[in-house]
Specification:
The structure is a single chain. With 73 residues, the chain is α+β, with helices and mostly antiparallel strands. The longest helix has 13 residues.
């Protein structure tokens, strides 16, 4: 799995997940439990991961829709 997106904004993560699912690209949200432990104040970013073979397609979908892409992929 490769990191596609890192954000503290749950709406960005939800939008990105919906876009990727619409394109048939599986994704997984990491660090959800850390976000819960912090009390929901949004200081710890969540990461959105995709399969390594889907990374380039996922990055294209993100850029086409004006969403940021992680450089840590």
């Amino acid at each position: 799995m490769k990191e596609l997106l890192r954000s503290t904004d749950p709406t960005v993560l939800a939008f990105a997940t919906a876009l990727l699912n619409g394109e048939g690209i599986d994704c997984f949200e990491m660090d959800v439990n850390m976000s819960v432990l912090e009390g929901g104040i949004g200081i710890f970013p969540r990461r959105l991961l995709v399969h390594a073979e889907d990374l380039e397609d996922a990055q294209l979908v993100m850029r086409d829709n004006g969403l940021p892409v992680s450089d840590r992929g």
